[in-house]
Automatic annotation (TrEMBL):
Repeat among keywords: yes
Ubiquitin-like domain segment(s): 15-87
Name of the protein in its database record: Ubiquitin-like domain-containing protein
Alphabetized Pfam families for the sequence: ubiquitin (PF00240)
Domain of life: Eukaryota
Keyword hit for Repeat: yes
Annotated Gene Ontology cellular component terms: cytoplasm
Length: 376
């Protein structure tokens, strides 16, 4: 791809220009000629999902330098600039491409691939009795389009329900009759925001694990905060743009996985989830984290890759003394930045000790040591 300047001229007033990227043209207007190339890259980040350090801007065959102004770079009104993106250096799920389709859910659509003939499961008396006796209901990969009535017949006997990889669109009010339910797996279904009866779901006072990965959720209700027994909450690969403030009420939460969404800010009340051990918010649109992350003293693992983060909470290394795993690959935070963060030395010592123990005990997948961030 090539770009050229036709009719571009510098007049001293604010300028407009266009950036060509992946087959589309992005207009940028009302820029001061004293703006730097780095400023321009920051403007392009939310429009392309490409991190500034992954952008190469070329104008009139010349690579533009971050510290120089538009005027110094001879970028004038009407200039056309070409953007080339480095592989992997993006926020969210990837660069925004020409006529990008809605991000597909990363699973096979059972309703399509398995045909329409198998839409319900036969539950005989023996199977129902076994469900009631064990408290475990396994209905994964059955191409279900509704939760079978026999599930509700288990009532207070049900402790674990596995309904992942189906085509279930609705979680009805009947879910509330499963009063002893502890684990509910509903990943990879066709659940929308308004198809979960949250009033009934949050009445399950013994629920410790809730998995809603790979559905079509764009928002979570404040009622989520009523699930005060929850220890694990999985809602990755949806379309969430935020988390409710009430998530701070989940003080027993140990594992939070919200990766591969569209979350641009984390609520400050996340710091009230004192029990958190593992959190994965990778592949989102975060530019910063709240300082309250430092309150999560039990944190051991934090995955933040593929976000627009430029810095970490100042107390993360000083206060989170259990932290041994930190993934910052494909962010704006490089190893040079990390090494200048207060508390880095102690954190680095802990994680290297953990890795050595894994090698000593020959733990699976304990290969080469990962620095946790890009070198440059």
């Amino acid at each position: 791809m090539e770009s050229s300047v036709t009719g571009g001229e510098y007049t001293g007033a604010n300028i407009s220009l266009s950036v060509k990227f992946s087959g589309r043209t992005i207009p940028i207007t009302n820029l001061s000629p004293d703006s730097t190339i780095k400023d321009l890259k920051s403007l392009l980040q939310p429009l392309t999902n490409v991190l500034p350090r992954g952008q190469k801007l070329i104008c009139k065959g010349k690579l533009l330098v971050d510290g120089m102004t538009l005027k110094e770079s001879e970028v004038a009104n009407g200039s056309r600039i070409m953007l080339m993106a480095s592989q992997g250096l993006h926020q969210g799920d990837g660069p925004i491409l020409k006529q990008a389709p809605t991000r597909p859910i990363s699973r096979a659509n059972n309703a399509t691939t398995l045909g329409k003939e198998k839409t319900e499961v036969s539950v005989d008396k023996n199977r129902l009795d076994r469900w009631k006796a064990t408290g475990v209901i396994g209905l994964r990969d059955y191409n279900l389009r509704a939760i079978p009535d026999e599930v509700w017949a288990c009532g207070a006997s049900a402790r674990v329900i596995e309904l992942s990889n189906n085509a279930i669109p609705v979680v009805p009010a009947k879910i509330g009759c499963l009063s002893s339910l502890q684990k509910l797996f509903l990943s990879a279904n066709d659940i929308l925001d308004n198809s979960i009866n949250w009033e009934a779901l949050v009445s399950l006072k013994f629920l410790t694990v809730l998995s809603l990965d790979q559905n079509h959720l764009t928002t979570l209700p404040p009622a989520l905060g009523l699930l005060t027994s929850l220890k694990q909450f999985h809602v990755a690969n949806n379309k969430l743009s935020s988390l409710p403030n009430e998530i701070g009420l989940l003080t027993k939460l140990e594992v939070l996985k919200v990766n591969n969404n569209r979350i641009s800010t984390m609520p400050t009340c996340i710091g009230d989830c004192f029990g958190l051990i593992e959190i994965d918010v990778s592949s989102n649109l975060l530019s910063e984290l709240p300082e309250t992350f430092g309150n999560l003293h039990n944190l051991k693992s934090v995955c933040l890759s593929n976000n627009g983060l430029k810095s970490l909470p100042s107390t993360l290394f000083k206060k989170c003394l259990q932290l041994t795993t930190l993934d910052l690959h494909n962010t704006e935070i490089t190893m040079d930045v990390l090494r200048q963060t207060e508390g880095w030395e102690s954190f680095d010592e802990r994680r290297r000790l953990k890795h050595q123990k894994q090698l000593d005990f020959r733990v699976v997948n304990s290969g080469a040591f990962d620095e946790g961030a890009d070198k440059s």
